[in-house]
Amino acid sequence: MRYCVLINGNSIKVRQYASESDYSAEVEQTFEKFKQGAVKNYAVKFRSEAEMNHVEAQILDAVVRLYPDIFGHLDQYCEEHRDYVDEKIGAFDREIQFYLSYLEFIAVFKRAGLNFCYPRMSEDHKEIYNYDGFDLALANKLRLENAMVVCNDFFLNGQERIFIITGPNQGGKTTFARAFGQIHYLASLGCPVPGRDAQLFLFDRLFTHFEQEENLANLRGKLQDDLVRMREILKQATPNSIIIMNEVFTSTALKDAIFLIRKVMEQIMQLDALCACVTFLDELASLSETTVSMVSTIVPENPALRTYKVIRKHADGLAYAISIAEKYRLTYDALKERIVS
């Protein structure tokens, strides 16, 4: 099948081939006698990619109109053999692309010295651990900024099921909770996970409750929205689920927040589900033998600086808010000085 493409400025026309001469060969022959050694090559190199740009697509549409019978037979052939690919082979073809892309993605982090491992998985035992794990999404952002990635460890032994994560703001608490969820989710897909060694639980469903913008369409306040979302999670969760919560019930009074989160934690403990809970309520850290206190730490010499290390220790109730206020000159004395000036 041959055709001609006529280009005139920004206009392109396509018509059937009419045995025209190849003028490019004639032009080369005519100017051959003027050639004086090596010269710059102005020949256009065609792309080798399979995808077409919009101009090529329109040219193809015009060719289809020129040869409707040929393309009609081609359409009929495709329709008759549309199911020729075995379903399992088709699924493998789609899924292997994800796994190969993931391995290519994490290779960048490995070259930077970060660890990945294939975890041991269990559907029965909830004694889990991960050493030198990290939030993969944050690590990718930090890599692009040439910043250091801080790794953390976690483990649960015996009857321990729930991480209660407390500590100063901007200290890595939410990042730790995200990493906990990411690592389990990636493991459930059969992927190597961030960390040098890991043993994880093969969950049935992973539920998350992170803060989100209020939806003006449903006319619910933030507290009611938190309650509705938590109710749906607890209705669907099973003993084999993982639940991740990030600072729920922050919009209500302290006494009410403690009452509500205790009720939620009691149900999670009854389920015997794994959970990571970021909270400003230190009281939860010693709720029962199933809870483990994790605390984000600061640089002792300068409480305004965060280490982003989250370690197992008793909640100390220190938010170091005064150091943040001093850093941004928001203390009473600083504000008074600025107002006067």
Layout: helices, strands, pairs:
Elements: E1 3-8, E2 11-16, H1 23-31, H2 54-66, H3 68-80, H4 87-111, E3 116-117, E4 120-122, E5 129-133, H5 136-144, E6 152-155, E7 162-166, H6 173-188, E8 193-194, E9 197-201, E10 206-209, H7 222-236, E11 242-246, H8 254-271, E12 274-278, E13 291-299, E14 302-312, H9 321-327, H10 332-340
Parallel strand pairs: 4-9, 7-12, 7-13, 10-11, 11-12
Antiparallel strand pairs: 1-2, 3-8, 5-6, 5-9, 13-14
GO molecular function, one term: ATP-dependent DNA damage sensor activity
Keywords: ATP-binding, DNA-binding, Nucleotide-binding
GO biological process, one term: mismatch repair
Task: Note down, in words, how this protein is organized.
This protein has 341 residues and is an alpha/beta fold. The protein folds into 3 domains: 3-80, no CATH class; 85-112; 115-332, P-loop containing nucleotide triphosphate hydrolases (Rossmann fold), CATH 3.40.50.300. The protein is 39% helix and 21% strand. It contains 10 helices and 14 strands. The protein has a 6-stranded mixed beta sheet, with helices on both faces. Helix 8 (254-271) links the parallel strand 11 and strand 12 (274-278). The radius of gyration is 31 Å and the shape is elongated. The N and C termini lie far apart (83 Å). 23% of the residues are buried. The mean pLDDT is 89.
